[in-house]
Amino acid sequence: MTTLDEKLAMRKLAIEGRPFGLGNKTEHEGKTMTGAQAIIASLEAEGVDTIFGYPGGQAIKIYDALYDSKQIHHVLARHEQGATHMADGYARATGKVGVVLVTSGPGATNTVTGIATAYMDSVPMVVITGQVTRGVIGTDSFQESDIVGITMPVVKHSFLLQSTDDLTRTFREAFYIASTGRPGPVLIDIPSDLSGAEMVFHYPDKISLPSYKPTYRGNARQVKAAAELICQAKKPLIYAGGGIVTSHACAELTALAELMQIPVVTSLMGKGAMRCSNPLNLGPVGMHGSKYANMAVTECDLLITVGARFSDRVTGKVSEFAPHAKVIHIDIDPAEIGKIINPDVPIVGDAKIVLGNLVDRLEKTEAKPIDAEWVADVFSWRDRWPFYTSDFADYPDAIAPEVVLHELSEKLDPEASIVTTEVGQHQMWAHQNIHREHARTFISSGGLGTMGFGFPAAIGAKIGCPDDEVVCIAGDGSFQMNSQEMATAAINGVPVKVMVIDNRALGMVHQWQSLFYNKRYSFTELADNPDFVKLADAYGWKSRRITKPEEIDSALDEMLASEEPYLLDVMIPRDQTVYPMVAPGAPIDDIIGALDVTLGGVRVSEKGFGDAHEKGKGGHAADLIDEKGGEE
């Protein structure tokens, strides 16, 4: 597993524009070789140890050169989309740049969803695509596609290599761009005739791009203004996003929160930015966040947003988001400042550096929190409206997904485990109930919401962090998007675990149809699912299915004890619903289905407390919704 010190060292190298590997001090320096060999030598110079990919005609020369590499391990996926998600999971878990190698045409286009997923979540990735020879580009040659044009909206930068003279510089720039500033995917498209051309290998040890200069240090006046607002605030709140994780700013975030006694809410990408065991961490906010976290946003008088972009899944109705608060927004990407919420104090800069400077300034002025009652109030809300209580079940005789995930969380070693998710109801249950103590240990597709992401990402994470237990929480719909990668795990001896939360439906869309479309279940029921246990057996995996609550404990123990890939099929009711919930476009304090322990631990809606209370006695969360599909 990559240690924090190693991750910080890689970050320093990236900022300085130097490769993570030996750079121009490799054994290849000064040697004559083919372009294909120079591609592999460039990857070795960057310190790349793992590539995920799928060969083809226009990449065959590169694959031939890769055959001789003693440094790089190639993982053969069963689909190019799977390869990109594996590289993504590897990058998120390790902090390194994920690398993908595929061929032209359909090989390249199959990576687009994975590239877009990485782009939306700011994941460093370099995707190398083979291309037809330069002489036939633009003639609709066999397996030709304009992959540079196709991916233009979803890459941080792209290159179409035109000469071997530019090859090594292109690779140095690609890794630099991918890993610095706001990270993201970079594509290098390489015509196959260049792969066969001869060249002398010289790798640039450092690169400087005058037109690309990310801002790391925040403006000192703005930092001072932010400190003054924090000192004046009676009800401050921190909204932490994935930028905290990316910049390794977890220690600085915790220092600020503890110094000024500021509660923290987190986005999906920000999970793990602060230890879940820290009482100031209120956890998920937004559409499926807790009632207490959403209330904290609504009631705060200062919102300190760090490394987050005010996603619609967090803000709900923007005009009513944090209505009483002044806003400090810290982000390394200036395009995010003012895009959705206009901050009172904008600070463009790296979260680690800016938060560090902010804490230093507050300590020097001996700043103290103003109002202890604010934290006490927030904590009382958390006690009253928990995500789940052990004595409540929407379906008492069936397996509750909240219980399964809570028990899994209790059994996982927080110091040596990684959880990935697919996308849907199970993703939100995992976000709510899986506790994480460290950054990069909860991996999920946030911005794009990509079904089929979590399972291959788990394979990439396990390859990158082989000493960690890696478990993917999947839905039966999402898992089938890339279930062919079970072969990749089996053949490569990657003992990932997959827990399928199986409701025989496209659960989240099914839930919306129930709540907002008069239960018109248009093509969301998966009655013809395969037998996942038999599917696992076909791929040589261990597996088990459970249908009763009393089976949960032993099944989890069996799954986690397995030294081989393992699938656990967890059968839950089709109509199980993720609560609490904010309806699309509603303010985030307009909450459906939060548990209220003062009313005996039943689900209530924000409006219609009495009716919700009475209907909640039946134990069915769906009873909170009226016949028209609206909130009571």
Let me know the largest β-sheet.
6 strands, parallel
What percentage of amino acids are in beta strands? Answer: 15-25%
Distance between the termini: 49 Å
Mean pLDDT: 93
Number of strands: 24
| Count of DSSP H/I helices | 25
Strand order of the largest sheet: 3-2-4-5-7-6
Unreliable runs: 607-632
Helix-strand category: alpha/beta
List the helices and strands and how they pair.
Layout: H1 4-16, E1 32-34, H2 35-45, E2 50-54, H3 60-66, E3 73-76, H4 80-94, E4 98-102, H5 106-109, H6 112-120, E5 125-131, H7 147-151, E6 157-160, H8 167-179, E7 185-191, H9 192-196, E8 198-200, H10 220-232, E9 236-240, H11 242-246, H12 250-260, E10 264-266, E11 281-284, H13 291-299, E12 302-306, H14 312-315, E13 326-331, E14 345-348, H15 351-364, H16 372-384, H17 401-411, E15 417-421, H18 425-433, E16 442-443, H19 454-464, E17 469-475, H20 476-479, H21 486-491, E18 497-502, H22 507-516, H23 532-538, E19 542-546, H24 552-561, E20 566-571, E21 581-582, E22 591-592, E23 594-596, E24 602-604, H25 609-616
Parallel strand pairs: 2-3, 2-4, 4-5, 5-7, 6-7, 9-10, 9-12, 10-11, 12-13, 13-14, 15-16, 15-17, 17-18, 18-20, 19-20
Antiparallel strand pairs: 1-8, 21-22, 23-24
Helix pairs in contact: 2-3, 2-8, 4-6, 4-19, 10-15, 12-15, 13-16, 17-18, 17-24
